[in-house]
Amino acid sequence: MPQPKVKLVVTGDDFGYCPRRNRGIVECFQSGGVSNVSLLVNATSAVDAADLAKRHRIPIGLHANLSEGAPVSHNLKGSTLLNEDGFFHGKTEFRKVLQSGQLNMYEVEQELRAQVKRFCELVGHLPYHMDGHQHVHVLPEVREVFAQVLADFGICYTRIPVEPGLHACPNIPPQLHDFYTQVQKDALLSVEVFRRHRIRWPDVYLGLTTMGENMSVANIKQALGYALGARCLANSLTVPSTGTQTDEIAAPDTDRPITVELMVHPGYPSDPLEGGCGQGPDDFSQSEDRQHELETLTDPSLLAYYKQESIQLCAFRDL
Hints:
Elements: E1 6-15, H1 19-30, E2 36-39, H2 46-56, E3 60-64, H3 91-99, H4 105-123, E4 130-132, H5 142-153, H6 174-196, E5 204-206, H7 217-228, H8 233-236, E6 258-264, H9 283-286, H10 289-297, H11 300-308, E7 311-314
Parallel strand pairs: 1-2, 1-6, 1-7, 2-3, 3-4, 5-6
């Protein structure tokens, strides 16, 4: 067979969040729309998700969670990671606590190690990859701890959420666009940290511009078009002095396929009384956008496009 132009890892995030998310992700995998999943080990349906991954031989990694729900470690009473109710601070508040200098990095490390160990208990092997729920793994200080934990466990792959074309996407609300831009700044500054620890990641990351209602066959094709023309972000990325310019793409290594990760969140909307990570499902999980992503990712025209363009779906373990 001819060598593919792109090796595409389509990762279904938040596996384990609720039974309906699990069911949708498995259906998406069986239909060829997802090739890899990322498990939330502190989610209420994590045990079921791990069993499904084993039963259906779904390649699986760890979606390390420091921002939503209850911790895995039993030694975090009174921790700086937790609010007064004993739950993680949340996506926005976690960042505020970190910026205030009040987050204890030893506690971050303790929780990350506990989540890796819990993953191994559930799945039976180490994660093939490990990234951060709500992109916390690229935040200042956290990225140092995260990279060290990856290196200590021998987990080779992570996610660097720097997306070509983000700044040209007109469909993202301003507030969300600001958040994504900050995520990319943090991600660019994490490159040196992960590289120093010999951690790798796919050449190109996609998923911010194709999330939820913005996902369509046309938008995925457009995003992959950027990837087809993109340089190898993994090993040649030079961090700009401003940390803001992410769309300058150099010539790729033509001797091998470009590797791409597409982050997705397919499933069926959560029941309001079922799921989550200890506090119930959030609005994101209950949104009809979950099913919209599922239907888009399994659209026959998209699967035909992959074949036509020599885009081979694979998993992190195949890289």
